[in-house]
Amino acid sequence: MRGTAVPEIVRFAAENTTQTGDILGLGTEQRVRWAKGLLPRGPVNGTVFYSGEMYPVMGYAEGAFRMLKRLEGFMDVNSLARVGPLMRKLGIYRVGARALWGGLNEKYQRALRDAVYVLRKLGVEMGYLFEDEPPSGVALHTYGLLREFKEHAEWVSRRLEELGVRRIITLDPIVATAFRLYYPEFVKDWRVEALHFVEIVAREMARQGVRLRLSRRVRVTYHDPCYLARTLGVVDEVRFILGRIEGVELVEPPRHGVNTGCSGDGGLELTQPPLARKVSYERIEELSGTGAERVLTSCPACIMMLRTGFDSMNLGLGVDDLASLVAEAMRNGVEREVETDAGEERREKLFFKRYRVLPRSPEPKSLELDDLAEMLLWETDKCKKCGFCNVECPTYRALDRLESRSARGRMTLINSLVRGDPVRPRAVLDRLYSCVLCGQCSQSCPVGLHVQELIVYGRAYAIYSGRAGVGPGA
Ligand code: SF4
Ligand code: SF4
Fold first, then answer.
1. Pair (386, 458) in one structural domain
2. If 261 and its partner were Cys, which of 17, 283, 355, 359 is the partner (CB 3.0–4.6 Å)?
3. pLDDT in tens, 311-348
4. Mutation choice for ligand 2 from 358, 445, 450, 455, CB with most ligand atoms inside 8 A
5. What is the domain-level CATH number for residue 451?
6. Ligand 1 atom 7: the closest Cα is on which residue?
7. pLDDT per residue over 197-232, tens digit each?
8. pTM of the model as a whole
9. Contact 301/58 with Cβ under 8 angstroms?
10. Host domain of residue 426
11. Residue 343: enclosing H or E segment and its boundaries?
């Protein structure tokens, strides 16, 4: 990775992911401590709860994100990537992070514990791999380090097989997407099933006829994470779960389900935090406009963006993982319907509709530059420059309609780079790293371009062509 056009902060996160198993490099102990005494070690009937490399340390990321906002103008995100390893050498990295942001992190670790509580109450049998849990490496994919991702994913596949894992349940939809969509593309004979928490909870609640009750009435709104709703097509399960909790009133924001808006993450929170914040404000206004008392969602990165956004706009709305609300209701007891005519409806609900809104992802023959170029040219040449995608693009709107930060602009840049026009890989990479990979563009493209996948492959081309010395940005 060294010697490439990759920004320092991306290198920092990618190296941490593969070396210590979490994006911040805080180490195994910090990553697994939330599960001590809660779950048996190793898979149970082939099933594990998988915490991933973000959720267990997301409070530290939130702390750093807040600090960067305060220090804007004095310190940028790449300086953080330089300070981290230095503090680690001095032996003060973990201690310092824990002293500063340990309290914030506790909220995220509590959500993991709540998820395990809910699953066990529903009778789901599973273990946890503790320090043996191999990181999914999804950050490598996000940032276009696709050769590194492939190598890592092949190792993860072998490791999970050795450990006897056949099914993964996770609270993180980005990790679920990696295991369900990216691994089958990059790893031959990938056989592990990956489920997001809400899928299995909805299915079990339907099968068992579960009804829950809160001891208070609460008006909530739900932010559908892009990865869960638009990419994996998981929408109905959330509404089903909330509909089964007495005391909950759901008010939907104008954009919801597969048409959800972006909260500003998708990797942008790490590469360009000021822009990520700007993107989040639009969504925050929509969510607060619902009049809800509480915002629920199902993604650690969305929680971070929404929590920090509500605070900076002084809107005082709390944000929780859906798992925590379900756990709260379950602590009041779990009612199971006796078998009646409702049994038929229940059986139907075991198969929730799986929405498919994104076009098929293009696959190059290999990750060699020529093959990447062939696929990227073939696809980006189809672009009609109609700009329907720009209307939907949140980074374009957040930056006063700057073409180079729009979906169409990024397609044009990738095309120019691959054609050998005078553009610099490093500059192209900077524009491509300003994308949140939300997929709203792909949803509205009349020629069926999977724009955000092309952006990931475009990142890979810019990185590897930059390393090869193509163009002055190398
Ligand atoms: S280019 Fe597409 S995926 Fe990227 S921010 Fe714009 S709409 Fe989202
Ligand atoms: S909507 Fe599709 S065809 Fe139209 S400009 Fe965007 S990427 Fe090109």
1. yes
2. 283
3. 988 887 899 999 999 999 999 999 998 766 666 666 66
4. 445
5. 1.10.1060.10
6. 393
7. 999 999 999 999 999 999 999 999 999 999 999 999
8. 0.93
9. yes
10. 369-467
11. helix 342-349
